[in-house]
Amino acid sequence: MEIVLDKIFKNTEIVLDDIYYDLDKWDIRSDAKPTLDKLANTLILNPLIRIQLASHTDCRGVDSYNQVLSQRRAQSAIEYLIGKGVPPGRMVAKGFGETSPTAICVCSRCTEEEHQRNRRTTFKIID
User: Fold this and answer.
1) Is residue 4 predicted with pLDDT exceeding 60?
2) Which residues are bridge partners to 92 per DSSP?
3) Residue 102: is it exposed, middle or buried by C-beta count within 10 angstroms (0-12/13-18/19+)?
4) Reading across the β-sheet that carries 13-20, which strands appear in turn?
5) DSSP string spanning the chain?
6) How far apart are CA 6 and CA 87, in angstroms?
7) How far apart, in Å, are the Cα atoms of 57 and each of 47, 93, 125?
8) How much is the average pLDDT of 3-23?
């Protein structure tokens, strides 16, 4: 059997499909689990890879709160992966709050879809 993989570059962010969060929440939604399961399998099959899971918020809320919320989101994704057998030392959680939006819009004029795109987790290979 031959499996074709996209090339992954160190220190390049890769957006995971369907890793989104509800407003003011950090729990892993059921629609995110298949993507995290694939990531877990990839990490288990590639035991030398270390990753950073980076989580983000939308622009609503104060900066300090959003920083804490995004860190909780990243840690929640890591805890899910640990539950799937990925050793914790291979992952780092990093919350970025609202500092790196995907959807650029004036906060009071953002659509709910734009807010949702900003409430996400990404990952990058760090080692």
Assistant:
1) no
2) 52
3) middle
4) 13-20, 120-125, 51-55, 91-95
5) ---------TT-EEEEEEEE--TT--SPPTTTHHHHHHHHHHHHH-TT--EEEEE---S-S-HHHHHHHHHHHHHHHHHHHHHTT--GGGEEEEE-TTSS-SS---GGG--HHHHHHHSEEEEEE--
6) 24
7) 30, 14, 21
8) 72
Global pTM reads: 0.88
Residue 103's identity, in one-letter code, is A
What CATH fold (topology level) applies to the domain 13-125? Answer: 60s Ribosomal Protein L30; Chain: A; (3.30.1330)
For 61-120, the pLDDT digits (tens) are 999 999 999 999 999 999 999 999 999 999 999 999 999 999 999 999 999 999 999 999
